[in-house]
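Illustration 12: RNA polymerase subunit sigma.
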Amino acid sequence: MESLKQVNVNQLWQLWREYDDSDAYQQLVDKYIGLVDQVVKKMKVNLSSQVTFDELKSSGMLGFIDALKKFDYKRGLQFETYASLRIRGAIIDGLRENDWVPRSIREKAKKIENAYQILEQKFLRSVTDEEIMKFLKMDRQEFYQSLQETSFMHLLSLDEPIDEDRENTRRALITDSGETIDDKLDRQHLKEILAAAIERLPEKEKLIVTLYYYEELNLTEISEILGLSTSRISQLHTKAIYRLRGALGRQKKNLF
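Figure caption equivalent — predicted structure in token form:
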């Protein structure tokens, strides 16, 4: 039997969505506003210190308000889940619109991505750090520094929804193109490509991708589980994303 608390919440949604009741709207805001801080705190851990909490919260509020306007309480979904996705999506949009990644970092990331794409296509396996460093003509310190500088570009979910029905996702964030891969590739085909690419990752990188994107742990939590420093987890995660981007890049070249 549905609890009285849930009935009352549904009544608030009905009053707000069907009768535009401002009091019901304010009660819903008061009840769920804490979701914004929750999402921001989780995302802030994995982002550059250049991005402030308040900047993220400002974007997140737009997603929260949008969720309140579009949530369909009749579908039986949890608003917390729906709103969290909206908030994350709005924060990601804000980061991209504000061009928070310097051009020099973008160029460096592109060079590393190209190196993984070219070498892994050549050798048909996961390449080593030494092979990447030789190709890029970098020493170990320079290579690891580059991974660190570009790591915050990749700390966003591969599955962020970009539409109300949550059918299309943020998988396109692992490419540089403004056009999503889903515009060109069948969604199921894309899933197969990503699954195969993840399966080919070195074991530690595969585990980190699984824990981060599917178990939704942050890098600090993963570092505690694996007994490695957060910076080392960040490096491994960044290399994994470069490999996945390279795999999708090769696939696009083969098809188009």
